[in-house]
## 1
Amino acid sequence: MLRALGHQLTGDERVDLAARLPTEAALAFTSQIPDPQPLTGFVKDLATRTGTTPAVARWDTGAVLAVICHLVGTALLDRILNQLCSAAPNSSRPPDSFGQDRASRARSSP
């Protein structure tokens, strides 16, 4: 999942996320060169890259984004989600398309 994010995130979001991840995770994330091709949808692309179903990819994405939210906070997570969504202008973003519901629950837990 972090490698998939590494294929997609650019700019300040990429730099800020890498700076806040534990070293090993940051290395996995930054070892990936952003893909210049536009997304068809992050979860769909992740499922294709990993050879899994969209449902499994959606679950994995939500789990990782919940942990990322704890590490980086809601402001950066929102910027990451916005970049992923804006990179795929033809895809709709249902509330749980990037695990947003799970990330929201993680934000509200103590």
## 2
Amino acid sequence: MAGNPRNGRRYRRLGVAQKALGLPYWVCGRDIDPTLDARDRWSFTLDHAVPLSKGGSLLDPRSAHRRCNSARGNRLTVRQPRTSRRW
């Protein structure tokens, strides 16, 4: 695939289809409000389990919060929550 795979009709259609499913964020399980402005940090964005820059494909789309997806970047693993010392 030449160029940036995130630019193009196929990627936009994939994002629209994934958003229409109304699935929660695949990491935390919290709902994503589809009415939020695209610039809002809790709005929907398309994520991939394996980042495209690390060899992932467009065939594994996931729903994510914009804030969480940006913080994750192109890392393969998701940070695990810290265990509280108070238990």
## 3
Amino acid sequence: MLKIELKLSFDTEDEAKGYILGFVDKIKVIEPKELHDKILKKAESVVAFYKHEK
């Protein structure tokens, strides 16, 4: 698997989260740790939402 390290800048945290989550499992936040944790929580909430779908 090819790995490329990038530095990205966003105007807002919500913009960053939306952009990153749009790549699903193709991008991983390394820093800042706080954003990494928030992305993980958001992804977990999406999985929980779809697991409880009827």
